[in-house]
Design brief:
With 301 residues, this protein is α+β, with helices and mostly antiparallel strands. It contains 8 helices and 11 strands. The chain has 2 domains: 175 residues, Formiminotransferase-cyclodeaminase, Chain B, domain 1 (2-Layer Sandwich), CATH 3.30.990.10; 118 residues, Alpha-Beta Plaits. A hairpin with a 4-residue loop joins strand 9 and strand 10. The radius of gyration is 19 Å and the shape is globular.
Length: 301
């Protein structure tokens, strides 16, 4: 059986009723498995993780996106996380023996149907990119929603699916095909934004830090905490232990301790090599957050 993971990020993390409304849509699809969803009021975004056969995942992703577009108005949306639109990013990830080509095909189908059904233009990134500069999500999202109208007026920055017409309510969507990515955050026991940004700059691969680590520093205003927010593109080569210990060391040099760490979505077992969740002060973790738990269940069907 071909299995695809989809991890749509919607630009709503404050209104729990809206987040639950999107979740209810996904729960109406009996052939997909909604693994996890959560909202963050500071980032003002919600992240959903679900699995299934490609055709089931496609329809579920479109339906959830339709509900999000109904509920979210970007003209009044703010948050610390970079974003392009109400349906900000929709990645498709091949699991098990599923080929990347399957995920690419699905991403292209989704992007075109998103525009046909809802009038939201899409940019393709990752393995689904049609323009080499768009392979990196950060390049697609540069300038964010606020710069989108001007960006779309430039022929070289036109979307891959849909007309280059700015939709102020919905914005645009980045649609991709990629390898498994782990969203991992470390909260510092302080509210020093500069410290979080400094640590992020020292550990991110792009700045000469740890391989496969993308990181930014943000403030969680609701909790008065500084956070090092990360995306990990290869947990086998750079597992949690290496990252946690480096952040711990850099924070300690400035007299600060780690308060806790957290996961968004699924993680492969290999990320825990040499350590355990409790050693990472990892909150809200159980076996259902492990990718292998769900692959095993699907394999038994």
């Amino acid at each position: 059986m071909k299995i695809i993971e989809c991890v749509p990020n919607f630009s709503e993390g404050c209104d729990l009723d809206k987040i639950e409304s999107i979740a209810r849509v996904l729960k109406t699809f009996p052939n997909i498995r909604l693994i996890d969803y959560s909202g963050d009021s500071d980032h003002n975004r919600s992240v959903f993780t679900f699995l299934g056969k490609p055709e089931d995942v496609l329809e579920a992703a479109l339906a959830a996106s339709g509900k999000a577009l109904e509920l979210i108005d970007m003209r009044s949306q703010t948050g610390v996380h970079p974003r392009l639109g109400a349906v900000d990013v929709v990645p498709f990830i091949p699991l098990g023996r599923t080929k990347m080509a399957d995920a690419v095909n699905l991403a292209h189908l989704f992007g075109h149907q998103l525009y046909e059904r809802f009038g939201v233009p899409a940019y393709f990134y990752g393995h689904a990119a049609l323009i080499s500069e768009r392979s990196e999500l950060a390049n697609v999202r540069r300038g964010g929603y606020e710069a989108l109208a001007e960006k779309m007026s430039n022929p070289g920055d036109a979307p891959d699916a849909g007309k280059p017409v700015f939709n102020p309510r919905a914005g645009a969507t980045a649609v991709g095909a990629r390898e498994l990515l782990v969203a991992y955050n470390i909260n510092l026991n302080c509210n020093d934004l500069r410290l979080a940004q400094k640590i992020a700059s020292l550990i991110r691969e792009k700045s000469g830090g740890l391989p496969h680590v993308r990181a930014i520093g943000v403030i969680l205003k609701s909790r008065h905490l500084a956070q090092v927010s990360m995306n990990l593109t290869n947990c086998k080569e750079t597992p949690f232990k290496v990252i946690y210990e480096q952040v711990e060391k850099l924070a300690a040099e400035r007299g600060i301790e780690i308060l806790e760490s957290e996961l968004i979505g699924l993680v492969p077992k290999c990320a825990f090599v040499g350590t355990k969740p409790q050693n990472l002060k990892l909150v809200n973790f159980n076996k259902d957050r492990l990718l292998e738990t769900h692959l095993k269940d699907f394999a038994g069907k």
